[in-house]
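User: Hey, quick favor. My workstation is busy. Could you predict this chain's structure for me?
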Amino acid sequence: MTGHEFLAERFEENRRHLRAVAYRMLGSASEADDAVQEAWLRLSRSDMSTVENLGGWLTTVVARVCLDMLRSRKSRREQPLEPPFPEPVGGRVGGNDPEREALLADSVGPALLMVLETLAPAERLAFVLHDMFGVPFDEIASILGRSPTAARQLASRARRRVQGAATVPDADRNRQRQVVDAFLAASREGDFDALLALLDPDVVLRGDRAAVAMGAAKEVRGARGVADNFKGRARAAQPALLDGAVGAVWAPGGRPRVVFAFTIVGWKIVSLDLLADPARLAQIDLVILDG
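Assistant: No problem, here it is.
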């Protein structure tokens, strides 16, 4: 086996882990693939004779590439969101089952993905690498060009934002249905006060890129803003089950075009995501309910 073939084999052993890191960093499957490919190109051009931990070296390279991509995206004010993989079950590097670890780490749920998109590039890198993949702060510091203490602070700040956005959705499907039905009725009737009564004061409305292209807001925060956004609208939306949770869908001619994914706590809507990306919609187990 030649040296190049040996490196290629070792790289393939790390590919799934590298893609998991890149996807959580970037929130885009295609950009994650680009970052992993760039890591391979850098590996193939480097002298690896003094590198003892190839996996760690590759993780650092992918992280640097992703950081550059995030900063470039920020300067262009672009936030690409592609269809997320199924809901994750955490995963840290160095477990006893690398294959299982890669499968778990290769996914990220839409709610977490939305929150990660709000973080600054350095915060996102520190949080993803440390909290999701167990990378030590001294290694993160070298990637960011900051001290380990500063890297720790970045991760801590990101962690507070992620935890602050976390909610425990109500599992009572009957209650979910009542809240969604009341929301749709108030929206159709233009009843601003009824909408306000259903919305948490800090509710967040988010639209994915496809929904925004169709005229939806990218993000609206606060009950009054969200109520104003929906007053007199959602006339054609129908209640639906979205992966078992009650939401709504706009499906002209029976073809889903936009889904309304609610997070409901108690009797209040705490977040509402408008999803219109066709690939994302295809991944949702959707059942339209009787009105």
